[in-house]
Amino acid sequence: MKLWLVRHAQPLVGAGICYGRLDMAADASATAECAEELAALLPPGIRVISSPLQRCEQLMHALHAQRPDLAYKTDAQLQEMDFGQWEGRAWQAIGQAELEAWTTDFANYRVGHDGESVAAFMRRVGSAFDALQGRGDTLWITHAGVTRAAELLARGIRHIGHAGQWPLDAPKYGQWRLLNLHTG
């Protein structure tokens, strides 16, 4: 089975802002371009599941306009990580002590004091990932963090002990990765 991990187009937010769960639109032109490229590549019958954040739903609707033959739904488990009180703040404005507290206890620290821990985030994405078993090819319209988590899950990694284990690489805005998952 194949899992397509598609990252939303460039969000309409200033550079250097922490915006995990903040709900904002994405660039309309870039969204349309991504949808057009995907529509030409996607196989018949693939299921499309989107994060409910508008930057992802925007791409889902644009893709649906191109490929109405596909089944579409949203799933809150595909939302980006919740950065709590850091949401909407410039990364540079977040104190060094706060960032160090997160990297010191990377798995369990509740980001932004009231946000999500990496362990909770991995469990949430892991639940969506586990639900894929036996369901056939699927496309997730989602975020960089969810893509990174899914790639770890595909390698059998469900727990991150320290910050150095978290992948830095993710698809650019409006790009995707394709995972070949072994089911059985």
From TrEMBL:
SUPFAM superfamilies: Phosphoglycerate mutase-like. This is Phosphoglycerate mutase. It comes from Polaromonas naphthalenivorans (strain CJ2).
